[in-house]
Amino acid sequence: MAIYDALGATYARTRQPDPRIAAQIHAALGDAEHVVNVGAGSGSYEPPRTVLAVEPSRVMISQRPPGAAPAVQAVAERLPLRDNAADAVMALLTVHHWADLRAGIRELRRVARRRIVVLTWDQRVFRERFWLVRDYLPEAAVYDDTRAVPCEQLIDLLGGGRQEPVAVPHDCVDGFGAAYWRRPHAYLDPHVRAGISMLAQTGDDALAPGLARLADDLKTGRWHRRYAELHTLEVMDVGYRLLVADR
After folding, report:
1. Closest CA to 91 of 140, 167, 40
2. In terms of C-beta density within 10 A (0-12 exposed, 13-18 middle, 19 or more buried), how is residue 28 classed?
3. DSSP 45
4. Contact between 14 and 194 (Cβ < 8 Å)
5. Domain count for the chain
6. Strand pairing partners for 223?
7. Which secondary-structure segment (H or E) carries 26?
8. How far apart are CA 76 and CA 108, in angstroms?
9. Using CA atoms, how far apart are residues 94 and 36, in angstroms rounded to an integer?
10. Which of 118, 74, 123 is nearest to 94 (CA)?
């Protein structure tokens, strides 16, 4: 069973594409006329020129909106596409779920004629800058340590490329891991946590002590005093990175 057959039931509710992040992703795709989205989920960030979405989870495919690009149930390691099938291939917050990273990247390179765009994160930066995993839920950081792929390793597997920081807006509408860095109450909501794989897969039992401390710190005002500087920021770099590799 695909991971998101279990985790993705509420994904379309909590993981809507943020227009500012979408603009950065679409700019990275350049003038590609045919785009394939690998690990496509419910279709977030697909530009209108997307010709195919590849997703292993039927639950995620079922949440794709009307009018979205056609989707095929398949895995990144075995893309059902011919060589050089698309101008560009994108893989957004997905490579850490792949069973065989090298095979998946090899498939991206096989299918993309011109460009590959990968959205991922730098675990070192994430651990250092994101207060939730640093100060409250280190268990989630430990879990991510086992699956996060260093950006340098990805760029090497891609055959070279560049990194772009992806700053997270304070009112980000896409509820991924650090989206609520200035809205801490959101992490107490089980529906929000269900849409964040590092929290959902760590499990509420392991997270309960840290969540209780967060709830208490929010109730007493301790959190707001401790992180007062966050309220002066409109965006924050917590380690998300866009990798762009030309073929």
Report:
1. 40
2. buried
3. T
4. yes
5. 1
6. none
7. helix 19-29
8. 8
9. 14
10. 118
**Stated pTM of the model:** 0.92
Q: Are 130 and 137 in contact (CB under 8 A)?
A: no
Burial class (CB in 10 A: 0-12, 13-18, 19+), 242: buried
Chain-centroid distance of CA 174 in Å reads 9
Mean pLDDT of the chain, nearest integer: 94
pLDDT in tens, 186-245: 999 999 999 898 999 999 999 999 999 999 999 999 999 999 999 999 999 999 999 999
Side chain identity at residue 110, one-letter code: R
User: Domain of 136: which CATH number?
Assistant: 3.40.50.150
Range of the domain at 56: 3-246
d(CA 187, CA 140): 13
d(CA 76, CA 107): 7
